[in-house]
Design goal:
The chain is an alpha/beta fold. The chain has helices at residues 14-27, 38-42, 65-73, 87-98, 113-123, 136-144, 160-171, and strands spanning 3-7, 30-32, 48-50, 57-60, 77-84, 103-108, 128-133, 152-156, 175-176, 180-200, 208-215, 218-223, 238-243, 247-251, 254-257, 266-271, 275-298, 301-308, 314-316, 321-323, 332-337, 341-343, 346-348. The chain folds into two domains: 3-173, Aldolase class I (TIM Barrel), CATH 3.20.20.70; 180-348, Endonuclease - Pi-scei, Chain A, domain 1. Helices cover 20% and strands 42% of the residues. The strands form four sheets. It has an eight-stranded parallel beta barrel, surrounded by six helices. The protein has a six-stranded antiparallel β-barrel with strand order 10-17-16-11-12-21. It is elongated. The two termini are 45 Å apart.
Amino acid sequence: MKELWIEIDESLSEEEKNKLLKTAARDCDVVLVGAKDVKNAKKTGAKLAASSGEIDIRVLGTFDEDRLNELKRMGRAVAVKLTIKGKEDQKVAIKAAELSPNYIILSCLDWKVIPLENLIANTRGKTKLLAKVSSIEEAKLALKTLELGADGIVFKTSNPDELIDMAAIVKEKAQKIELVSVKVVELRQIGTGARVCVDTCEFMKPGEGMLVGCQSSGLFLVQAEVHESPYVETRPFRVNAGPVSLYTLSSPTKTRYLSELKAGDEVLIVDRDGKVRSTNVARVKIEWRPMILIEAEYKGKRIKTIVQNAETIRLVTTEGSKSVAELKIGDEVLAHLAEGGRHFGTLVKEEKVIEF
């Protein structure tokens, strides 16, 4: 299992640090902090790494052979931080690995693949290599290099949502999004509109699809085209998602408009249990088709979506799926509800937004 470390910047406010620590306690293997933050970080119960203090892993800012050997004799877990700028730095990293510290934290300027490949090949089994990254793109590169990838990631961010997204990538575990059964209260044909089919780089199965909706606070689970029909072939890579203006989730914490999606972009596949996996868009196809408005209610809250009015478009339910052509008032389908508003797709829970 790959490890995820979060590095807490000492310059952050106490409020920012506490929010990160709360998320890290749930999603991270180790929290890397400065000496002055050790006491506060210990309250979370998370495993700690720092250069000093009462911590689980002692971090050496440079490779010091004598100090490393001393700490090992004392039975201490040790991580050595190294920056790779050129060939000589690679030699230092390989030498450090020969002494078998528990971890080597690598910072590669402008993230180069070849240095990491060399170090993975030369240090495998001697120590754990952790790649210091600043984005999900860098993390994916580091985790897949030479097929084996780094043993883990050290991520520096001030945004808890970014940390949640990184955890989903590093742990390769299916994060869960809460889904509830909402009751259909209105169905209305509304004419023709520009409908988006999202073709992905994955196969989906019954009960899987994408979350889409007219409101960012209420997204319906539209099933991929996996249902057998005597009239058309299945397209298990495709979700017939709805008009161009609908919201969809591109990560567990961020929405995008369907109109913004293009080949290579990331989108989320969600199943009826709320399990999430990420994939990429292979292509987006927009065609003009007749539409149907679906309005549903949950505990007094009303949400809406619009989809193509066709037998092959199906909404996911707790036990199966139902064609929108067969949908009736009183039927229940699955949806994801969220409070707050969105600022360029990012959830702002404190913001009050009214959507009709």
